[in-house]
Amino acid sequence: MILYSSPTNLHSHRVRVVVAEKNIGVRIVQARDGSLPPDIQLLNPYNTLPTLVDRELAVYNSRIIINYLDERFPQPPLMPVDPKRRAHFRLALHRIEHDLYGLAEKIESGGGESEKRQLREATIEISEAVESSPFFLGEEFSLVDCSLAPLLWRLASYGIDPGPRADALYGYMRRVFARPAFTEGLSELERDMRPPAP
After folding, report:
1. pTM beyond cutoff 0.85
2. Quick one: which of 34, 63, 66 has its CA closest to 47?
3. Is 145:138 a contact under the CB 8 Å cutoff?
4. Pairing status of strand 51-54 against strand 2-5
5. What is the pLDDT averaged over residues 84-88?
6. Which ranges in 44-179 belong to alpha helices (H)?
7. Burial level of 90, CB count in 10 A (0-12/13-18/19+)?
8. pLDDT digits over 94-128, tens only?
9. Arithmetic mean of pLDDT, 32-40
10. Cβ distance 22 to 76 under 8 Å?
11. What confidence category does residue 194 fall into, taking pLDDT thresholds of 50, 70 and 90?
12. Burial of 88 (0-12, 13-18, 19+ CB in 10 A)
């Protein structure tokens, strides 16, 4: 199994967290969007990262990849079994990608204060969601947490401080960032995005 991954983008980061959480033996090839390996052009018609190769199968789009990995390697499970809860989790994943990742990508492309303000308000809503449970949608770490954590890791580099209204968020961030899989999933460039804790 080979994962072609960007050392800095959110989508690649969340796939690496899932790989580490499930302890999957994957060779990770770090690449930049501007200098993609020639293999990507043959495997992925969109020439995007991340791209996962599992024998003769090439999988692209980070949400499809993380769902594939969760089904291919069912232990530990990162999605609920119940169809209604699973649909709820999938909707949360869609919102994270569409709303939060969309704002983050605009900020990374030089977006202004409006995008930062919207992302800050969204993090306060996340804080409210984790006040009564250790993880975003309950007691168990899930694909939703694997997707939120890379975004939250980048807040300081975006110049966003959620402030005192987000006390529960800071506890959530400490729990998620302390997981060995999260640390293992960080690239060297991502480690430098966040100042060390005091």
Report:
1. yes
2. 34
3. no
4. antiparallel
5. 94
6. 62-72, 83-95, 102-108, 113-129, 143-153, 167-177
7. middle
8. 999 999 999 999 999 987 899 999 999 999 888 88
9. 75
10. yes
11. confident
12. middle
